[in-house]
Predict the structure.
Amino acid sequence: MSDRRLEVDRVSKRYGDTVALDSMAFDVRAGEIFGFVGSNGAGKTTTMRIILGVLAADAGEVRWDGAPVTLETRSRIGYMPEERGLYPRMKVGEQLEYLARLHGLTKPDAAAAARSWAERLGVEGRFGDEVQKLSLGNQQRVQLAAALVHHPEILVLDEPFSGLDPVAVDVMSEVLKEKCAEGTPVIFSSHQLELVERLCDRVGIVRAGSMVACDTVDALRAEGGEELVVHAPQARDGWAAGIPGVTVRGEEAGRTVLALEDGADDQAVLAAALATGPVREFARRRSSLTELFRHVVSTEATEAKQSGTGEHGK
Ligand code: ATP
């Protein structure tokens, strides 16, 4: 893996009284997929727009390979904006070729790249159709093709998976893995945490405009501690309440997820579960990214309440 990296260095941005970004900092290395997660209004889109130069930062800097990102560098970024930016009345093929030409490809190269990405993303059959006639999911495939058609050095994708069917999710995931294997840094935002967990080398969790956790999925999950999953079909809600060092994270249809503090006695949990009737499942596992995220977000909610801040609306 090369050591080129995209660095977001203490970037801040305000909209009037709203602090959208407060010293946002992280980096994405060449050949890595970086998942950017955070609740609505946390600052993901603002960060991506600043990387792209669509928006100027109030403070801080974005660097690629050690040098500040310029207009020229930005032309080598493949960007998928949150508000999709295709021309609805233009034909799929023409649009992809046009975008490739805008980025400096020759006519034959642009035509070949348009055709090959349309094929790769499964929309070659719609090559001659106007974008507006495609389903939203297929428009999104075209949008990804548009981000890729000029052979970008860096990929920045704002919620590329939202609204896709499972087959399209697989196609998109494969393409991102392929680009990453070729040495392209890939950064994407998503609210689909299971997908993020599956796909990303590292994940950054954003809260109120700052990075609050940024590490490999395994390291983040280790931070979230261990969980115990207990399936005791005859147990009533609340059966595990009061066992020392144990917190109930979720309870549904006799299946309970418990968080264990260090040193908590799992055998006391098993005894309590058996006291309710048969136990069909009893397993320890690491916290999922979803659990860790919930924890971070609930901290955010509490802090926002205490300080009287929060999202001010767009
Ligand atoms: P989501 O997951 O909902 O897309 P996000 O993490 O992408 O959210 P941003 O869109 O970056 O969040 O918004 C960060 C903050 O900046 C929010 O408080 C938002 O209301 C505010 N904001 C964003 N764009 C504008 C704007 N054009 N004018 C004023 N405030 C804005």
